[in-house]
Write a structure and sequence with these properties.
Order of helices and strands: HEHEHEHEHEHHHHHHHHHH
Strand content: 5-15%
Bound molecules: fe (ii) ion
Distance between the termini: 65 Å
Strand order of the largest sheet: 2-1-3-4-5
Number of helices: 15
Radius of gyration: 39 Å
Length: 360
Amino acid sequence: MMNSATAKRYDSPEEYQLDLPRILVVDDEEPTLRTLSKILALNGNDSVLVKNTTEARVQLQSRTFDLLLCDVNMPGESGLELLREVRSDSPQTAVIMLTGMDSPDLASEALHLGAYGYMLKPFKPNELIINISSALRRRELEIKNSVYHTELERSIREKTREIEQALRKLRKSMSGIIKAMSLAVESRDSYTAGHQHRVSQLSSAIALEMGLSDERVEGIRLAGIVHDLGKIAVPAEILSKPGKITDFEYEIIKNHTRVGYDILKDIEFPWPIADIVLHHHERLNGSGYPFGLEGENILVGARIIAVADVVEAMASHRPYRPALGLYIALEEVKKNRGILYDADVADACLSLFNNKKFSF
Ligand SMILES: [Fe+2]
């Protein structure tokens, strides 16, 4: 086998154009070699003449040829074997097969193996020169085409890397902006500081436990961080009021889902964050707000945040009551599984705390 490492590589079409065509001729008949030598010399080609495939391989290992003119029938080994080897090891070398036998099957096999041409002996000098020129021209176009494709692929890889980098930066800043929004609303209500962050943590863990894609989990994580953004419109006295709130105050609080939606609806997120925020107080049996949506009419992200929200809120201290504790919170989820809360979401949440040692 030829050493493919010695084969010349063309990194640019300019490099190819600087070279004069180098031709290797392989033919066991002395008279044919002499004729070819004269024709090629008159045509100004740089040629090397050898009598068999063994000598041809020695030449092919020592330098790169632009064209191989190769007899088919030679004692020992057929020229077709050399053709097969050259086309696989140095595809940049064009090959024209020469034969004294007019056989369509042989011609077809040679072309199938990658020969650029197939010539019957004896041939006229002009016929040979035309065949050589067209083979070299085709080879040049193939090299240019290959250089173009390599360059194109490199450029596509580079652009893709740049786009991915820009996307990562964009996502990072988007995440930062969402976090800032979350801190803004929590700064007005010290009792619920960290609530959205913890709901976001539990929501994304539930989404993962349910087998949602990483992409959807990320959307739910971000929606969790801002799910109570609308509370920015609720007076701080109501948010931090100890004891029971009035029906009127409760209506103001309930409006936070719509306010959150209005703030977020014009931001083009890759996820329906505004809608998830709008739906996060809907309940499976239609008893929630603001629309009284039921079952699958409520977005999955909102069904997940609803459960995480209840668990976090019940497990934490509130201005109007002390913390009820995690046990009571999980009992609430168990009791209303499939009634208020999506059964799959409830199961994933319970499994996280009971089997996976999840903690806020
Ligand atoms: Fe809420």
